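Attaching the record inline, Q. Sequence:
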Amino acid sequence: MIFLEGLWDAVLDTAALVPFLFATYLVMEAIEHAGLGASERLIRRAGKAGPIVGALLGVVPQCGFSAMAATLYSVRVVTVGTLLAVMLSTSDEMLPVFVAQGAPASLIGEILALKVIVAIACGLIVDLAFRIWVGPPEAPAIHDFCEREGCRCEECEGGAACEARCACDECEATEAAEHEAEHKHALAHEHHGHVHAHGGGAGSAVKVIVTSALHHTVKVTIFIFLVTWGIDLLLELVGHDVIAVFFAQNPVSAIFAAALVGLIPNCGGSVIISELFLEGTLGSGALIAGLLSGTGVALLVLFRANRHAGQNLAIMATLFGVGVLVGFIVSASGFVFA
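Structure, as predicted:
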């Protein structure tokens, strides 16, 4: 019974993400199809304001926007500060649980407002630190992501066939100036195993973008489903009661524990934390610690899409650290969400 319930819950959780994932890959493919120059302009114009916009988008219920941000960060379309802002403000299942339990609108507003403020501040600070010590944001690398996903140049004819920077040996041997000249007269070019048909008009370009987006969406959806199913089964086997007892008996440790539960790449973490707070088991400090570190499946998407494991671990550690720090500040100040 637990096996089947976990299976159904995983199907529902994963299905809710599919539209967000597909929309994200459509945007990525459209940007890549338009060319590197457009991508560079996008990231440089939106970079500084990214954390503010990201924090406001992330507060929308469910974890779809955080999953989108994780994917876009993996190809460097958004900055790490923007990603952190979205993740920190993400409410996942908190809002639906609070609304279902009849929580006051003022209580919900206080929690979401604090999450947005912390998200914006953290995102701006991180981006500023990176610009000072690391330098300008990396250029978007959507084509590199496609290669890691298994797309290849199956045929290279030189010139326009390489305009989109396919990584086959023949393409690398062609000079950039020749690419530009030949591109003006080419009818089509091969890009990551997909034919971008200029001569076929807008319809052909749209078909290429949609097909590639579907390819990526299916692969990532299967991965998320399998991991989500496993986590659901684990939570059911451990039992919510065991977690509740631990929180009640260890109020100080509860802040660390709640932040750890929030890191679980599943909506179950935010559900547990929200319900325990409404029952009076968790204090305000532990609540905000868990909700700040909780990103739904965004961490899962990040580890799947971004090849830099060190960066992924650093982002996860930052989420945990910010959650714990703010949790202790709220607890020490005596502030109570009410």
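Residues 151-206 form one domain. Strands lie at 188-191, 194-197.

More tomorrow.
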